[in-house]
Structures are given as C-alpha cells and as structure tokens.
Design brief:
GMP Synthetase, Chain A, domain 3, alpha/beta
Length: 256
C-alpha cells in the first residue's frame, strides 16, 4: 500500500529529463544541472540526496570557474566550448547512472516533466547569479581602499566608483541616466563600475563573451554611450567585460 502511494506521489510531481540536465549544465554551469538533479531526488522522495547534490554541484561550479580562469588567452575560445561540454557530459553520465531508471519509469507511468522554457529560465537566473558573484568578487579583490559602491532600487543595482575621482553628485547623476537608459531596472540587478579621467567618464559592465560581435548589441552600446554623454555633458566610454576570462575582467575594471 505504501509503495503504491509513493509511486502516485512521484507521478504527480514533475521531473527533469536527462536531456534537460545535459542542456542546463552545458548552458548554465554544473550548478543548474545540480539543481535539476536535486529537484528529481526530491520528486523521487530521496530527500537525503538533495542536500548532497547541492553541495557537490556548488563545489564543482567553483572549481570549474577557477580552472577556467587559469586557461591561457590563446586557448580561451576552445575552452569556452570544451569546458561546458565536459561539464555537461559528466552531468549526463551521473544523471543516467543515479536517476536514469527512475526517470524512464516516471515517464512510462505517465508522469509529468518540466518544459524547456523552465530549463531556459533556470539557466538565465543561474548565469545572472554567477556573474553577479564574480563581478562582486572582482570589485572586492581589485578595488582600492577608496573604492565605494552605492546601491539603487529594490534589486540593489550596484554602482561602484573611486571617491578620489568622482563626487557623490556625479555618481547620483550617472545612476539617474543608467536608469533612464534601461541599464538599471527594478527587475534584475546590474553591477557597473564608474571611473573618470579628466573630463571623461567611463563605465564598465559585464556581458556574455562574444556579444561584442553582435551588430545589434554594438549599436545598442553606441546609443547608450550617446545618451550618457548627453546627460552627463561630458565624453563617456562604455567598456564591456567578458566574464569568461578573469584577466580580461581585471583589465576592464582597471581600465588598462
């Protein structure tokens, strides 16, 4: 009787396919794959494995990011494809070994599965969270003692600056135009570094590697620069940092 009840509970709960775990890990890091596997364990009533899966996936994500930061620039493009592929392959093997039979049985009995849209949403959220942590860490590591950060809006948009370069009034004015141009919103947190040399301002932001090759993105950045210059009434440079290479981000933040 208990077995029948347990099976009915499993069928009612949605799970992630092995393919979804592979895709999520490939696009969003081992953290996404770990989340999906933990969700499956919870659906299968194996709650003791949920916490273990979370801990392991977080550790693997940290190690993967650290190892990726050590890869030389000459191999960065290959690594950008190879590292996620290896992570996804390992996640697929583990998911198949630990959950493959249960997933197949769940589907055979008519159990529901999560849609691809949910997988996409989780991936976007995870990537945004990881980029925020990386950017915050870099500000902490490379920032000088005079580096300060102001926070704006319900999502705590972050605008960091050097107190010896810009005044509080300039920072507040920049935040106003970052809101008016859509860089800052009340929906998703964004971190921006503001610098000034002479009469020229520069802002640095993180985006995914390769976006600088997108013509629409390049045009958007140019419009942003023009709007900021009009508002600040001074020249403004917009620097786009790729988070896949820590050294590139450090160069962007340092303005070198």
């Amino acid at each position: 009787m208990e077995t029948q009840v347990s099976e009915n509970v499993e069928i009612k709960r949605k799970i992630y396919r092995e393919k979804s775990i592979w895709v999520g890990t490939m696009l969003g890091s081992p953290l996404v794959g770990g989340y999906m596997m933990a969700s499956n364990f919870r659906a299968f009533n194996e709650k003791s494995k949920v916490g273990q899966t979370w801990i392991i996936s977080v550790l693997i994500t940290v190690v993967a990011l650290y190892l990726a930061s050590l890869i030389p620039d000459s191999f960065s493009r290959l690594a950008n494809f190879l590292v996620p592929s290896i992570n996804a392959g390992i996640a697929a093997v583990i998911a198949n070994k630990l959950q493959g039979d249960r997933i197949a049985e769940h589907i055979r009995q008519g159990g529901k599965i999560f849609s691809g849209w949910r997988v996409f949403l989780i991936t976007v959220i995870a990537v945004a969270a990881i980029l925020t942590v990386i950017f915050g860490f870099l500000f902490l590591v490379v920032g000088s003692q005079e580096m300060s950060c102001n926070y704006y809006g319900p999502v705590q948009n972050e605008l960091c600056y050097n107190e010896s370069e810009v005044s509080q009034a300039e920072v507040d004015r920049m935040s106003h135009y970052l809101y008016s141009t859509g860089v800052f919103t009340d929906d998703q947190m964004m971190s921006v570094l503001m610098e000034k040399s002479g009469d020229t301002y520069s802002i640095s932001m993180m985006f995914n590697d390769g976006v600088e090759k997108d013509p629409d993105f390049v045009m958007m950045v140019e419009y942003l620069r023009q709007d900021l210059e009009k508002g600040m009434q001074s020249p403004v440079f917009v620097n786009i940092c790729a988070p896949d290479d820590v050294s590139d981000v450090r160069m962007c933040v340092d303005g070198k």
